[in-house]
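To: structure desk
From: M.T.
Subject: fold request, one chain
Message: Could you run this one when you get a chance? Sequence is below, nothing fancy, just the single chain.
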Amino acid sequence: MRLAVLEMAADTEVLRQPNTSAGKQEEIALQGTSTSTSKKGSSRVFQWVIPLLLAGVIGTGLMLYYNHELSMNQEVMTLQQNAKKEALTGRYSDAVQLLEQAIEKRPSYAALTRDRELAVKAAQIKSRLDIVPNQLKSQKLNEGEKSLKDIANMIGKREEPLFAPLQKGLAEQQTMLKVLRIKGELDKLSTISALADKLDSIRSLNGQEAAAVKAQIINKITGISYSSAEAKLRKKDFAGALAEVDTGLFYNSDNEKLTAYRKQITEAKREFEKAQAKRIQLAEQKAAEEDLKNRTAAVNVSDLQVILDDYGDLSITGTVTNTATRPIYSISLYLEIYSSDSGSYIGSTYADVSPYKLNPGESGLFSTSYYGVYQQVQVSAANASWYLE
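Reply: Done. Structure tokens follow.
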């Protein structure tokens, strides 16, 4: 508007001047108008460019700051997630290191500080729990029990997921402690009822050690049952021998040795009853010389083998051959056991030969056990008994 007023004023002045002066005045007016317009346009452009440049710089800075903060948050979140994974697998020290890295980047995040405190506490508990296996292996059971009680109190009733590996490890070591205490008592137990009570006390326990002790108890019950059945069979107490075998099979129904021995007892009972009937009918034995030989030198013992197992128990096996001229049955050996080192007498046991009956020249096998020896021994057949058919 200002420019337009100036132009109107200039036109009016030209009309008032002579023609010769009018052209010059017009030129001056036009030049003045052109210069004013140029300066005004430049000022207006400058006023718009500066704000736009400032806005661009500020926007770029804000965008870079936003991206930096976003990247930092992502990095912190990754560290926190990795720390969580480490803690849930029981690697608490690694989790603490990751959380400390995250706290350096975001020291004001309360969640990171809280997670680090939990991880540090879990790491302290784990360091104490790691000592317990060595205490138990070295038979320091009382110290191990005290450590486990302290650890249980430290864990308390915490429900945070990162304490789950500690609770699992605590339960495993508590099971191990109970198993070792029971295992230490086994050598003192010599009856099926006492062993059965111990077996019931650990049936709910899990783990490799618990399974091993269960197997050891069952094997010992099986051995006692077999030995008791042998003793009663030697006295021709067939019903009692069957009862002893059935007791062992109750705890170890798949035991092949007991199953086979039960068949042998049944066969012995049948053969004995049959032999009794024959003995009633027989008036006398054959010739005296043959009778003497058959009664005093009817068996030959060979291939006597003795194996000492990891629990200190003996497994004794061997072969018996009928050297008589007549069939023999109900063959039993009396075995004596001596120390290989000192030669001192340790004990004795009986072994019955299977099959129950041997014809002349035939061989049978015998197998028996002896518990709680814990040393190398020598075994010899001190005596043998049999019946002639």
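Reply (cont.): The CA atoms of residues 246 and 262 lie 8 Å apart. Let me know if you need anything else for the meeting.
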